[in-house]
Design goal:
By secondary structure, the chain is α/β, with parallel strands linked by helices. Helices cover 41% and strands 12% of the residues. The strands form two sheets. A seven-stranded parallel beta sheet has the order 1-5-6-7-8-9-10. Strand 6, helix 9 and strand 7 form a beta-alpha-beta unit.
Length: 359
């Protein structure tokens, strides 16, 4: 099978020739990879089955539009501004981590959103060459996945990056009119980007709402169903109107089993990452494997940083045998590989997929 055939077979709940795979690397681990291998791209070196595409970045200078939304002292601390949505970032205490700053924490009403320079994915230059890239990757045999809003989670994350995560959760109860207006705007923008991305021919549309904690949802299931589920459903409906056979991928870290039936109801095909420190991937497979496929399942808080290479290999073998039974699995680390993961365990992960991944 080609990589694309393998992925599409697995995600149609049929048995491919072998389990598809990929992994994400944080910047420090990517540096280690390059030092250890002399190669530049893990996707090529480890032969991932899926490749990613996205829209072109906005024009140079757009970040300047957001400077008026921040106090001057933040720039003295090294503030950088996302040119797409306008949220700010400050370097964190270690590794690749950073702290956010928010451009709209003090607004009070929907009227205060007028004039904010939201991103515009309808501009033709945002999509120049994207379809050609998708076609090239298909010709090379790869499945192609794409994210419509520049790598952010869908609808909810852009909203809280403007208001602040704590503030928007307060807004849910104290300022519902503002929440509705802001979520309507981020939904409108995300749907526009998603439809245009679907038109390029990607196989997998990446959607996400990171609303899971280690113990449960960040909000009540009722709040999710009232505020976020209908907006995500509208996005999926719009994308499927363009590409009925497109696969819908949904990401949320944490314990999200309370929303899985809702995701199936609105048309999600693939759940990511099925974080094993919070949920049992084998139980999730038993409960929902007829309706959902799974992407991930290998713990980056447990076996990958703290297991031995032999334990990593045995763990991966079990995941393939149980969660990958009959297809329905793309095996991957549950999150991007962090610096605590030994290089030997990364090699053990890929070696185990090679050794045990054949059906």
């Amino acid at each position: 099978m080609t990589h694309r055939e393998r992925v599409l077979t697995a995600f149609s709940h049929r048995t491919p020739d072998r389990v598809p795979k990929c992994a994400g690397f944080t910047p420090p681990v990517l540096d280690t990879f390059r030092q250890q291998t002399g190669a530049d791209d893990p996707a090529d070196y480890f032969d991932y089955d899926v490749r990613d595409v996205g829209h072109n970045p906005p024009k140079d200078g757009r970040a300047e539009l957001f400077k008026e939304y921040y106090p001057r002292e933040l720039f003295d601390q090294g503030l950088s501004i996302d040119p797409e949505w306008g949220y700010g970032m400050l370097h964190g205490d270690f590794h690749h981590f950073y702290r956010y700053a928010f451009p709209l924490p003090h607004i009070k009403s929907p009227a205060d959103l007028r004039g904010y320079p939201f991103p515009d994915f309808s501009l033709p230059e945002r999509w120049v060459g994207v379809k050609e890239e998708v076609d090239r990757l298909h010709q090379e045999g790869y499945a192609v996945a794409g994210s419509p809003v520049g790598g952010l989670d869908t609808i909810f994350e852009p909203a809280w990056l403007l208001r602040g995560e704590t503030q928007i959760l307060v807004d849910f109860y104290e300022n519902p009119a503002l929440v509705d207006a802001l979520l309507d705007k981020t939904t409108e923008i995300t749907i526009d980007g998603s439809v245009r991305l679907a038109e390029t021919g990607v196989d997998i549309m990446i959607t996400a709402m990171c609303i899971g904690t280690q113990r449960g949802l960040l909000m009540s299931p009722q709040t999710w169903r009232h505020l976020l589920k209908p907006r995500l459903a509208a996005l999926i409906k719009a994308v499927r109107a363009v590409r009925p056979d497109i696969l819908i991928f949904f990401h949320s870290d944490g314990k999200v089993d309370a929303m899985i039936e809702d995701l199936i109801e609105i048309g999600v095909d693939i759940l990511h990452p099925v974080q094993p420190e919070c949920m049992d991937p084998e139980q999730i497979k038993r409960d929902f494997g007829d309706a959902l496929s799974f992407w991930g399942t290998v713990g980056t808080q447990s076996v990958l940083p703290f297991g031995t290479p032999a334990e990593v290999k045995e763990y991966v073998k079990r995941r393939i045998e149980v969660v990958g039974a009959g297809g329905g699995l793309l095996i991957a680390p549950s999150q991007a590989l962090e610096p605590e993961v030994p290089w030997e365990n990364i090699l053990a992960f890929f070696a185990a997929v090679e050794e045990y991944g054949k059906y």
